[in-house]
Each structure stands twice: as C-alpha cells, then as structure tokens.
Amino acid sequence: MSYSEKPKVSWGALVVVLAVAIFACIVIGVILIPKLINQNTPSSTVTGTEATPAPPKNAIAIEISSSNTKEDWMNAVVAQFNQEEHKAASGDVIFVTVKHVTSGGSQKAILDGKSLPVVWSPGDQSWVDEANRVWRDRNGKLLISEPCVQTVLAPIGFAMWRPMAEALGWPDKPISWDDIVQLSANPQGWESLGHPEWGQFKFGHTHPDYSNAGLLSMTALAYSTIGETSGLTADQVYSDAVVEAFRGVEQNTYHYGLQSRPLMQILAQRGPEYLHAVSTSEAETLKTNAEYASTMRYPLVFIFPSKGTFWSEQPYCILDGDWVSDDQKDAAKIFKDYLLEKKQQEMAITYYLRPVDTSIPLHAPLTIEGGTDPRVTTDTVPALESPSAEVSSAVKDVFHQTKKKSTIVMMLDTSGSMEGEKIKSAVASSVNFIGRLDPNDEIFLMVFSGDKDIYELGGGRAGDISEDLTNKLNGIYANGSTPLYDAVCQATQRIDTLKADHDTNNEKRLYGIVLLSDGQDTSSNNSENQMFNCLPSGESVEGTKLFTIAFGEDADADLMLRIANRTNGKTFTGDPATIESIYNAISAEQ
C-alpha cells in the first residue's frame, strides 16, 4: 500500500475504507485534507520512514523515532556517526537508525506497542509527559524515567507570503496570534489592511492530535488569549475567551494537514491565491523557500508570535521499555552526547535549525533575506511553558469543538470484482469510520455496481443516521459491472446540491468525496473526459476534495491519482490487508 508523493497531495476520491479513515478524521478535525502524497505508505504517519540501512552484524543497534522537523539534520548526523564507527564500552560498534515520524502518531504507536524504538525524540516535552501518564496508568511505571535533553530549537510560528507579512508590519512590527485571530474573523479580510485584492484571509494548520506544530500553535493561541507565558491550566483552555479565539480561527481555517511539510508543499504549489498563511516551524518555512524558489510567486517569511511561542526543543528521550537493553541505553547516551557536540550543533544551522547552544552565532540561511529574523531570541519572544498532559488534552478538545464540521459523500464500488475479502474489509472499515464521526458531521453513502446502477443508501446528520447506515452497509454484497465515471459525476452533483443548501443558510463546512474502487470503468454513460469535466477545479481552497483509494492490483491507480490531484485531494493504493493502515493514516490527517 502506498500513496503518491507529489506536493500536490493526491487525496482524491478515496475508498470507502479511506472514507472511513477520512471520516474519522472529520470527527477529529477537518474533513478531507489535501495532503501531499509525501509518504510512501500510510503507516509512515505512525512509524516513519527509515533514513539508514539495517545495522551490521554484532553491532549495538539504536533505533530512534524522531520528529519530521529535524529530519535532514538527523539524517546527516546519523550518517556521519555511523561512518565514524563509534564504540560502546563493550567494544561493540554502535549503529544508529532513524525513523522520521509525527509526534502524535509516534506517541500512539509506542503506547500501542506497534513501534519499539530505543530513543524517542518528538517535537516537545509535552508529548513525553502525556505518554508517561498513559504508560504509568497501564503499567504502573514510567516509559521514560530519566530527564530528556534538548537537541535543537525549531520555533513554531506562521509562514506567510512576504507581501502579506509586510502588510502586517513584518519584520519590525510585532505580530501576535491576536492579529491572526482578528484578520481571520474580519469579514472585510485584507481590505481592512488596505489590500482588497487579496480577499478574505485564508489560513491553514496541521492537526493537533498528531502534529507537534499543530498542538503547540493552538496551545500558543490559548496562552496569547489569556496573556500569560506559563502556568496554563485546562480550565483556562475551556474558558469562554479561549473557546471564542479558537472558534475565530477554526471557522476560518481552510486547510488542515497531518504534517507541516506536506502542508507547506501545497502552499508552495498553489500559491497565495490558495492559502495565505499556515502555522508551522521556522525550519519548514525556510526549507520550502529553498526547495520551491524557482516556482513560487513570492517567497515566504516566518513570523514569530510576539507574545510568546514554543521554541520546540526536540527532546531526546531514552525509553525504559523492556525491549531496550542496558547496552542500548549506554550506546544511546553516547549518541546523545555526539548530537550536542559543537560541530553537530553548528551543522544544525545549515538545516534551518537553531543550536541549543546559544553561544553559536547564527548565519545563512537563518537571515532576513532567507525569510526569518535572526535577531529574535528567547529574550525578545518569550518561550512558552510546555503544556501538561491535561492542558494538551483540553487544547485538542476545544479544537474539535470549534472546527468546521464536514459533509462527506462516500462512494463504494460494489461491483462483482469486489466479491470476497475485498467487500468485507471495505464494509468493516466504512462501519468503523461512520462510528467515529462527530454527531454534527454529515455523511451520505452511495454504492455503484451493475448496469449503471448507482444508489444512495441514505444520509444526513451523523448522529441521527449512523446506526441506519451501518445496518445498510452490513447488508450489501458485490455484483455486476463498474460505472465508475458516472458514480464520480453523481457524487459531485450530490455534494454540490448539499453545499448550495449550506451556502443559503450561511453555514461553513468542509466538503469531501471518498471514492473506493478496485477496477476500471466498464459501464458508464459518461466518458473519462466527461467525468473529469464533472470534477471541481481544485483552484479554490473552499472546493470539494476527492479522496480516492485504488483497492487491489486491478484498480486503475493512475486514474484515481489524477482524480485526486485535480481536486487537491489525495490518493491511496491498498488491499484488504492494508486498508486499516490507510484508515489510520487518513484519520491522522484530519
């Protein structure tokens, strides 16, 4: 199972299974989030991708689950360390491998026993504190007993197109979360700052359940609202003032993502007409400028929230799991010391990170010309205190309460080729998905098979109809041909009708179509070209996105990819054995 790796996020029409995943996401956060197909497997959102080969025989192997933000730096340091063949006290060579992960996804994978690293390095200490709380509840002891050390700094703030940031006063005028909230909620949008040509302010951010930048940026919003830099409590997060601040942002958030990098890629690809700003790290902002300089209309700049931000210190934590030997712990400490040596700390600047050793002077690419302000330090922008486990949970709660609700059309291929394990796994995933929806999300289930037969089995508010849809799903079976093109057109028409009703009532929602099919079109009235003409253009961030799942070896993966790309959706390929992984990946993105 894999999904395309183009910055253009191929989320297209997804499989029912995917639908399941996406819907779960919906309950969490936005519905269909076009994410670049940057990973090769949905499971990579949980366990990451390997940056180094398997360890040689007889070496002490140290596996590290490390946050994506410092991926390039960690790859360089690990390669250098392994080449130098450092040895433990026993005389055995130490060999380090690293998997690059989301902070939330890796936390869940470790707690569930699906990932067993020796070292875990999420973006912030708060992920560690929450993991320790859960581990102690389950096992009566801590997962990480020794203090974690800071490795590098990757401050969290906003990436914004330079002309827009300059309209707000960057780099000399302080810009805070308050300014972002006010601009997001202002019906005049950029006109209030003398730029009516830019329209309404369009903001995006990553999901706080999975992304370190997502969690910390929303926590920073809570801090900014109450006017403090430390001591944030869960009660304060649930206060009316903070809830309203969250609502002001979430009701005007146009795009979500699992990770900062894919979100930055779609920002760079689509340009200022698509999104104006996203919350992310300084490192991701500057890396995007470097990678897309030749194609972007304007460069991006990084804005430090002036009232305080998280400097994202990337803690290095050695686990106390029973899978970690004493030799591995000792070897992990040797690599920790290596990371903190001046040479490796200076190398971090090359990869858009700041050394924890503040005596090391900053230089290019950390410059005004590169897109950031090297004059900013913790003396000028205070470091916010990491949230406790209780505060993190409260931030996620308020995010879910205030985010836009979703309207989804699920299209399930029930043609004869889906017979057997395929239809069973697709149905089971769809049922699971529907059960995870927010009660106020909307779900409409359609199936297609036979001689141009396309049926809507039901739909409406998830809280009212989920049981009925589950019963109907459990009663379907595979039979007939595949009117794929007609199904896509009918689903698009259906969601256009729903959207028109919502627009009439001034109701803001996220719209997506999840398409699962295991074959090629065999019986449509519409041609392929006519089907593409049915699709939304994908030019507007407010448009419907199609998430597609090419299910099985016979599926038309290329067609599913093009459908997803056309609408800024995403595409996946899977089979009955991997469908749950796809679901997990999608739910993490929402």
What does the model show?
The structure is a single chain. By secondary structure, the protein is of the alpha/beta class. The protein folds into three domains: 16-30 and 404-589, 3-Layer(aba) Sandwich (Rossmann fold); 46-152 and 313-355, Periplasmic binding protein-like II (D-Maltodextrin-Binding Protein, domain 2, 3-Layer(aba) Sandwich); 156-312 and 386-400, Periplasmic binding protein-like II (D-Maltodextrin-Binding Protein, domain 2, 3-Layer(aba) Sandwich), CATH 3.40.190. The protein contains 21 helices and 19 strands. The protein has helices at 16-28, 44-47, 71-84, 103-111, 125-139, 162-167, 177-185, 212-226, 234-237, 240-250, 260-270, 282-292, 326-340, 342-350, 389-402, 421-435, 462-473, 484-504, 528-534, 557-566, 579-589, and strands spanning 49-50, 60-67, 94-101, 119-121, 149-150, 152-153, 156-161, 203-206, 253-257, 277-281, 300-303, 315-318, 354-355, 405-413, 442-449, 453-461, 509-517, 545-551, 570-574. The strands form four sheets. The protein has a six-stranded mixed beta sheet with strand order 1-3-2-4-12-5. Strands 16-15-14-17-18-19 form a six-stranded mixed beta sheet, with helices on both faces. Strands 9-8-10-7-11 form a five-stranded mixed beta sheet. The chain starts with 15 loop residues before the first helix and ends with a helix.
